[in-house]
Structure formats: C-alpha cells, structure tokens
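Lecture 7 notes: from sequence to structure.
We start with the chain below.
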Amino acid sequence: MKIVILSRKSSLYSTEALINACDKRGHEVVVIDPLRCYMNIATHNPTISYKGEEVVDVDAIIPRIGASITFYGCAVVRQFEMMDVYSVNESVAITRSRDKLRSLQLLARKGIGLPVTGFACSTKFTNDLIGMVGGAPLVVKLIEGTQGIGVVLAENKQAAQSVIEAFQGLKANILVQEYIKEAKGSDIRCFVVGGKVIAAMKRTAPKDEFRSNIHRGGTAKTIKITPEERSTAVRAAKIMGLNVCGVDLLRSNHGPVVMEVNSSPGLEGIEKATGLDIAGKIIEFIEKSARPGNTKTRGKG
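Predicted structure tokens for the same chain:
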C-alpha cells in the first residue's frame, strides 16, 4: 500500500512512529506537509500537488492535523476524499472534534457524561453563568485552546468573574466548566482505534498545577479502566465519527465525564506509558479498512 502521512515534520515522534510501523509492514510511506499542498478543485478530476508534482496512486492517508492549521489541513483531507482516497479520520470528523462547543453539544445529545458546562457571549450575566456550573472553583477554557493552553482554574468567585470578563473583553469564545475536585489533577487518556480502546494511561499534573497534559509537565502511567469508562470512550469516538482518537476522561463522583476527544492524539506518551506499539495498531487498522468507497462523506462535509 501507499500511505501518505499529513504532518508538518517527519521528525515528530508520532510521525516517526507511524513511518516505522509502515516500513515494518512493507508499505510505501510518504510524509507530506499539508500547508505545502495545492489543489485543483475540478469537477471530474480533482487533484493534489506537492512540491511541483501531482500526488497519485495513494491508498490511504493519516491526517496529523495540528489545531493551528485545522482549516487548511481539513481542506487537504477533503480533497483526498474527493479523489476516493481512504482517510483514517475524515475531514468532517476532524472539524467536528476541533470545535469544543459543538463536540460537547453532540456528546450531551447522546447522553455522554460531561462536566457541567456554560457558554455565553455577554458579560452581563457572568454571575448567573458562574452559578449555572456550581460556582467557584471553576475552569475557564478558550474554545480554540490545545495542550492545556488557554485553560484557567478560577479558585473563587471574584477570580472567576475577572477571568471570564477579561476573555470576553478580548472577544474570545470561552467555555465555563465545573471543576471536578475528586479527580485530584488527574485524567485518563483512552486511545481508541477502530471502535476499541487499545490502550489507556492515567496522566497526573505536577505539583501546584491542575492541568495534567504531558506537554505541561504531567506524568503518565498505565491504568486499568472500568467497563463504564471503556464504553464511554468508545461511544464518544463513534459520536465524533473518529476511527483513531484520544478520549480524555475524568473520574467524577457521578461516573466518568468526557473532557475532550482529540483527533490527532500524540503517540509518545501512550506508547512510553504502556509499552504498546500504538502506531502498529493504527497501520493494522488501515490494512483492514482502506479501500476505495469506504469513506462515508467523500468530501461532502
């Protein structure tokens, strides 16, 4: 098979792991920077070119689309879909998962456990918004934030008011969420491939920090998840329409709650914590699934 990895750098851990997994299984693998692609959006023969050459005879693509390039990256994925190339995660699903508000609304509609979440535009009703999520302490999140950036813990009502009003004064879209105290600065990353949780790790925030992201100094170790947590992760991935994703859960007093569904989850933390060949599992899934016509939206989203 010829597999294209859409990634800004081939030296990134996740990209390197996928390259090695392809090589081990005898597949031809090409890394393409999506921002350097250009497209001919033709009715009968849509094409993609890269560095002066048309990209042809591709069997499958693995999108590693960073949050900062979601718009253009998804346009490239959509073009491949129009060319009837199988994408591990489809453009519609990636776009859906990147919109935190839309994601939560979709998950809530299907009955997935979530932290109590508020969203508002006006600062006139800040007190009511704070009360809606159970009061302080609470978490304020930028909708566009990733890797813990743009996430603030407001420990009292005055701090919450100040943070919310400051963000809204900058015309930033924010979510206000209840703070799950019982999680104690830890969350669970469930790695889902093809509708199954193939690995899980517990991430714990460093001292004096509440964000457990490994990029922010958090530590990770393997963990045995409950059947309810497994079911929640699988259902969340299905609702988002993602074949490969990381589902981040918190253990609350009322069961597992989903914080986020990540369409381009990093492989380094989960592989080192669990010792599993996650990249290999992704390539195995592609081998079973990649065929013309097996794309649900085919670029229609």
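Points to note: The longest strand covers residues 196-204. The mean pLDDT is 89.
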